[in-house]
């Protein structure tokens, strides 16, 4: 898959995990162990998106942007 597509998908997944985390905070039916998992997955997907955006910047010879995203 191309890095741009992977970055967009990972960014969207991070948004979904963030939304799920926000929605689950107001529910008492879920176990407390779910919250750190959702927060971690949100951060992981954001990092994954930034990593693939940095690869895309490297291919376009935008080295400053590449370093900033890493």
Number of extended strands: 0
SSE series? HHH
Compute the number of helices: 3
Which descriptor suits the 3D outline?
elongated
> Using only CA atoms, what is the Rg?
15 Å
Strand content: under 5%
> Mean pLDDT, nearest integer?
89
Main beta sheet: strand number and arrangement? none
**Unreliable sequence segments:** none
Question: How many structural domains can be distinguished in the coordinates?
Answer: 1
Provide the structure class. Answer: mainly alpha
Helix content: over 70%
- Could you tell me how far the N terminus lies from the C terminus, measured between alpha carbons in angstroms? 20 Å
Task: Describe this entry's structure for a reader.
This protein is mainly alpha-helical. The chain has one domain (3-69). 79% of the residues lie in helices and 0% in strands. It contains three helices and no strands. The protein has helices at 3-24, 34-59, 63-69. Helix 2 (34-59) runs antiparallel to helix 3 (63-69). The chain is elongated. The two termini are 20 Å apart. The mean pLDDT is 89.
Compact description:
This protein is mainly α. It has three helices and no strands. 79% of the residues lie in helices and 0% in strands.
Overview features:
single chain; 70 residues; mainly alpha; BRO1 domain-containing protein; BRO1_dom; BRO1_sf
Any chance you could write out the topology, listing elements then pairs?
Elements: H1 3-24, H2 34-59, H3 63-69
Helix pairs in contact: 1-2, 2-3
